[in-house]
Amino acid sequence: MITLKSPREIKEMQKSGQILAGLHIALRDIIKPGISSWEIEKFARKYFKENDAIAEQIGFEGYEYATCVSVNDEICHGFPRKGLILKDGDLVKVDTVVNYHGAMSDSCWSYVVGKSTPEIDRLMEVTKEAMYKGIDQAQVGNRIGDIGAAIQKYVEDENGYGDVREFIGHGIGPTMHESPNVPHYGEAGKGLRLKEGMTITIEPMVNMGTWESIMDDPNGWTARTADGSLSCQFEHTIAITKEGPKILTSQDKKRDAKYLLED
């Protein structure tokens, strides 16, 4: 079912999104060579508690953690682990969902541990820009396919990377995963028409090599690139309004000025 949110409900989701954005900003100083990915999980749990928020992922279909921490060739749903020590040049994706007094927000961000490389910098730049190209298509009257087509064209045709198909965006609120599905590939002009009040995630996952993935057999959750190449992801929760798409999980008010709700 698709739920259309009122302006008041969208404002409440923005409060949740601001908590989530604050976590991602704080992680910039936490993620460094020598820490374990479990330390990211511990920090997130503490941060949510201090902000009177709930880590909504815990218990979802049996998932045990507040965060997904996916490293290098892990595309998504990586488990935070005490034995995984981060090192210089690792590409880390941290994905989590916040419930703040019933209002949901979902955002993934990518981080380089220590010193980066030009190849990683380019992959991250393309992935983030792909997200924004998708957001620009999230207009009242457009269709779901317009979002995916813009992302796929930019990622694959213009930059030669792999645009992951198996994992997609989704509606959000009042539960974590709702209709509609929001693929990051597709055909312009096709699919569900977007309406004012929809709240969705746009979260492209971009691989340096093939778009194809394989599942990590030991845990049954984690997806990896089929060819072992690096994978990157950025995700925002957005509201579709008559004034255009509004980012509810913004970390950069200057970059996102045209996408922010009016106070």
UniProtKB/TrEMBL annotation:
Family of the protein in this entry: Belongs to the peptidase M24A family. Methionine aminopeptidase type 1 subfamily.
Positions annotated to bind substrate: 77, 177
Annotated ranges, domain Peptidase M24: 12-242
Binding site for a divalent metal cation 2: 106, 170, 203, 235
Cofactor (UniProt): Co(2+); Zn(2+); Mn(2+); Fe(2+)
Listed InterPro entries: Creatinase/aminopeptidase-like, Pept_M24, Pept_M24_MAP, Pept_M24A_MAP1
Cofactor note: Binds 2 divalent metal cations per subunit. Has a high-affinity and a low affinity metal-binding site. The true nature of the physiological cofactor is under debate. The enzyme is active with cobalt, zinc, manganese or divalent iron ions. Most likely, methionine aminopeptidases function as mononuclear Fe(2+)-metalloproteases under physiological conditions, and the catalytically relevant metal-binding site has been assigned to the histidine-containing high-affinity site.
Binding residue positions for a divalent metal cation 1: 95, 106, 235
Biological role: Removes the N-terminal methionine from nascent proteins. The N-terminal methionine is often cleaved when the second residue in the primary sequence is small and uncharged (Met-Ala-, Cys, Gly, Pro, Ser, Thr, or Val). Requires deformylation of the N(alpha)-formylated initiator methionine before it can be hydrolyzed.
Assigned keywords, A-Z: Aminopeptidase, Hydrolase, Metal-binding, Protease
An annotated Gene Ontology molecular function: initiator methionyl aminopeptidase activity
GO biological process: proteolysis
Name of the protein in its database record: Methionine aminopeptidase
SUPFAM superfamilies, sorted: Creatinase/aminopeptidase (SSF55920)
Keyword Nucleus: no
Reaction(s) catalysed (UniProt annotation): Release of N-terminal amino acids, preferentially methionine, from peptides and arylamides
UniProt-listed HAMAP family: MetAP_1 (MF_01974)
EC code: 3.4.11.18
Complex and partners: Monomer.
GO CC entries: cytosol
